[in-house]
Amino acid sequence: MSVTTHGTRSAWRDVPRPQVRQFSALALAESPRLAEDILREIRREYPQLPLVPDESGEPLALVGIRRAIEGVVQHLADASGVTGKDGAAAPLPSAFEEFGRGQSLHGQSLDALQAMYRIGVKLAWRRLADIGQRLDIPPPAMYELAESSYEYLDSLVGESVRGYAEAAAREAGERLRQQRRLMDLLLDGRAAAPPDPVRALTERAARIGWPVPDQVAVGVLLRPARDAVAPAVGPDVLLDMETERPRLVVPDPDAAGRPDLLRRALTGWSGAVGPPVAPADAAKSLRWAESAVALMERGLLPATEVLRCTEHTQALVLLQPEELVDDLARRALEPLTHCGPAHARRLAETLLAWLETRGGAPEVAARLGVHPQTVRYRLRQIRELWGDEIDDPDHRFELELVLRARRLRGDLGPR
């Protein structure tokens, strides 16, 4: 800070040096009481402000305020202002960086921090203006001093903001580390193992202030681009962007408004969210989400949005145990191997429509968009191929299961 005005004559330099020294002496003498008045006013506006003591037991905030006042006035007797002979700014007290760091650690907002400085400079300037009036210092010189005081305030705010940002970054890094440990506990299956899984989850969640919900749903995301910005899912949703496929844990996924909020936050992303489960069973929800994503990558589920597994249960149940369903299909559909591929497909589609409708030829024909006589012809062929087995309920269930699976894979026409 300097009390000179670039390109013009300094009004403060025109003040007689004895008068300047008298002003500085009075201001320094009143700085302890002024600092206490400022801190009292700040505490009145922000009663939650913690008073952290220094090594001597004096509040750091009070020390910082007093040093700020002293920093404004201690060089006024020097015609060069408060810059060093080499033009460098006078060193700033480290207490201001520490003060900003403390505000971050105690949960104060950056706006609140800056508001505290505004309160301080307002009260300080009133006191300095009163001293200047008592000593008959010309108004232009006091105006120049006010401008310089605000410049100095900006530098102090900068120091505190730096400390605030450093502490916030460290705190965010620690929270992220604890959040990953919580997600690891939830998703690797250990949360469901004894002893006392509820206590283990509660203790780990408490470290990041995450209330353990009654239910969670776990999501797996596919990045729209490698450098995609993390979706704004909200602070209560646990999100891990460090994996190739980002994962998220959604608390109380069926709570009012939650699905809509999540859908908006994940616009532009694709992936799947598993079914709601107890927190100790989060690994099960993850497995279903991973299964759904695998089907999306094979083109068997839509890959244009984030799907809810509960809305695609049939596909997940019928398509995921692929080898078992294929084995059952080979046995259940063996009669069709004696037909040509195109004819076998038409018979399979007719058989599935008949099994689903349990109706006669007209209903099946309407479903397939063909003539009822065509359906009657095909149904006669089906009965010839399967014989009495077609009337067995268990065999009909197996047939419908494998035919539905084939339709989901695209091997049969749409319903």
Describe this structure in words.
This protein has 415 residues and is mainly alpha-helical. Helices cover 57% and strands 5% of the residues. The protein is built from 14 helices and five strands. The chain has a five-stranded mixed β-sheet, with helices on one face. The chain is rod-shaped. The model is unreliable at 79-91 (pLDDT under 50).
Number of strands: 5
- Strand arrangement within the widest β-sheet reads 2-3-1-4-5
Number of helices: 14
- Overall geometry: rod-shaped
Topology as a string of helices (H) and strands (E): HHHHHHEEEHEHEHHHHHH
Q: What do the pLDDT scores average to?
A: 82
Distance between the termini: 79 Å
What class, by secondary structure content?
mainly alpha
What Rg do the Cα atoms give?
37 Å
Which spans of ≥5 residues are poorly predicted at pLDDT below 50? 79-91
**Helical content band:** 55-70%
The major sheet is characterized as: 5 strands, mixed
